[in-house]
Prior knowledge:
This protein is an alpha+beta fold. The chain has one domain (12-30, 37-166). It has helices at 12-20, 25-34, 55-67, 90-100, 153-167, and strands at 40-43, 49-54, 75-78, 81-86, 115-117, 122-125, 138-141. The strands form two sheets. A five-stranded antiparallel beta sheet has the order 5-2-4-3-7, covered by helices on one side. A two-stranded antiparallel ribbon has the order 1-6. The protein is elongated and about 70 Å long. The relative contact order is 0.24.
Amino acid sequence: xxxxxxxxxxxxxxxxxxxxxxxxxxxxxxxxxxxxxxxxxxxxxxxxxxxxxxxxxxxxxxxxxxxxxxxxxxxxxxxxxxxxxxxxxxxxxxxxxxxxxxxxxxxxxxxxxxxxxxxxxxxxxxxxxxxxxxxxxxxxxxxxxxxxxxxxxxxxxxxxxxxxxxxxxxxxxxxxxxxxxx
Length: 182
């Protein structure tokens, strides 16, 4: 598996986009101007939603988006999770799409849960200056414009299904009954 480019610094256009998500964009910009290494908690639902996956699975999703799909929007890592920044509304729609795909059913038990953060939720956003310390909140793919492309729920579902298929052999046959006398 090839690794995604490690863009750790956010440009001024990306900083402006991130700040626009909060209730006080000018205060956020002033904070980052004075402390470019400060983490900030921003609300989801207007500028972006966030889909969180366990780190390794999230990286597989990112790899699928980049290698076989349309690419990704901004992506961060924080506390052992990969955070995919997605189009507003994704957090509301994705759970029903995952249910339709029988995500989390007995036959896909090995597939990790995806946490959807949308309207009413907030996420910790990595500092614009980045951070390379192990376990730090940092950007894998930093936002680079005032209007970054953000995948919607169908694209995130596509990436999750492709990553799951690559990680787990999914059989169309039910598991054998271990107690059967044959």
